[in-house]
Amino acid sequence: xxxxxxxxxxxxxxxxxxxxxxxxxxxxxxxxxxxxxxxxxxxxxxxxxxxxxxxxxxxxxxxxxxxxxxxxxxxxxxxxxxxxxxxxxxxxxxxxxxxxxxxxxxxxxxxxxxxxxxxxxxxxxxxxxxxxxxxxxxxxxxxxxxxxxxxxxxxxxxxxxxxxxxxxxxxxxxxxxxxxxxxxxxxxxxxxxxxxxxxxxxxxxxxxxxxxxxxxxxxxxxxxxxxxxxxxxxxxxxxxxxxxxxxxxxxxxxxxxxxxxxxxxxxxxxxxxxxxxxxxxxxxxxxxxxxxxxxxxxxxxxxxxxxxxxxxxxxxxxxxxxxxxxxxxxxxxxxxxxxxxxxxxxxxxxxxxxxxxxxxxxxxxxxxxxxxxxxxxxxxxxxxxxxxxxxxxxxxxxxxxxxxxxxxxxxxxxxxxxxxxxxxxxxxxxxxxxxxxxxxxxxxxxxxxxxxxxxxxxxxxxxxxxxxxxxxxxxxxxxxxxxxxxxxxxxxxxxxxxxxxxxxxxxxxxxxxxxxxxxxxxxxxxxxxxxxxxxxxxxxxxxxxxxxxxxxxxxxxxxxxxxxxxxxxxxxx
Length: 573
Prior knowledge:
CATH architecture of the largest domain: 3-Layer(aba) Sandwich
Low-confidence stretches: none
Strand order of the largest sheet: 3-2-4-5-7-6
Structural class: alpha/beta
CATH class of the largest domain: Alpha Beta
Mean pLDDT: 95
Radius of gyration: 25 Å
CATH topology of the largest domain: Rossmann fold
Number of strands: 19
Distance between the termini: 68 Å
Largest sheet: 6 strands, parallel
Number of helices: 23
CATH superfamily of the largest domain: Thiamin diphosphate (ThDP)-binding fold, Pyr/PP domains
């Protein structure tokens, strides 16, 4: 909107948006340039923001989501209108589902054209489409409101349960001008966007009383606990209580997976036998079998009691009754529990902890025997053992992981030692996060990144290896190549076309990285994989290792075969 009485220097929508983001500590933007945001990306780069330009909007969105999880600041993704917006929408919805703070900013057609459906270039009512799929959605129509729009988006993304926010910016907004001094005054620096939410004292006492009376207590750590960055207090709570703990995949490393109280190696046993379970930033969704059924001991599930720490009160009782809801931010809740425990806290019965330790030692020994084997060609265990050793040597490296079998085996084989060093498919189990997450991890932390990819999962975002090379990021992609989805042995019973789950045999994935100036290597043995991975971490060069895996290895759908109707029917037949 043109100021009728300009006084001195002018500014415009482009620069107001840049200044609003910088004022709020935003340093990186993940984007795909195009109409109407191309000029914005140029100006933002010139103004000192780091623009990471992708080959597809969904991967830019995934990168923004991962950045939000790692930094506790909303990751920013910017796309063009309509198709570009839709491409970013999957990532935005995934971020909301996983409670990652992210803002999707998309250019759009003018309201007067959209509302009359007059057929504008890439015309779409983007705000209406986004609203049901994210935490909040806003549209800015006037330059003087850009500051408010950005502030509302940031506060919405970070406050309470974090999530995705959509910010709609019609193309005409960018070119609007106003007085520079008035424009500067219109910007807002968001103060305390995620204020602490202190739990009620009676709720803290109720939770502690329940823990005190437990004979077989268990703590489950979710990725919300990792996001909270209350690492020291969470570790203190677990060690002071003496309670065994089970980390969900993205909570691995809050305490080292080798910690004496870790129950990961005996997950099935502790879930089935625990009588009191405290959930810290974890939800009783499908990943925890909704807190009931065979996973939780069948009939025993009826007598089990839950303590749940969550910032959202409506999460309580979502699947089973929560005996002791503890509503507040994780840092405040854990701190309050620690204070309430005092100095004379009694550790759990030795029968419980010793029984877990014995089962754990037995399972770890059995796994060690499997990992020591050296089959030819490699299987998932022998290849992942190499990565396991590399992560042990470089605990600061960030692991990104997706696939079916590649994901499931890596979760249980590759130990993590530091918090927020593992990023994977999360609550939705969505494929295609690999390269976006890997790029964000490298950009936001500067640490080496090891992306462990099933060959099917890699196909969703593989073209972003060019992005990795363009920005010379310290990312090593390892493609577990077994010629297909789950395995490469399916056949078409009628002949002709290959089976739906088969890929081209002997695919040379390493050449994709070579094509853009990176390092591409084939690994047929653990020794070759170890050499290539060690060199990649040492050099920091973009690298892709085509790890050849026995095509008969793997199972249908990994560990969620029961969700495949046909497979489930076979099991019950």
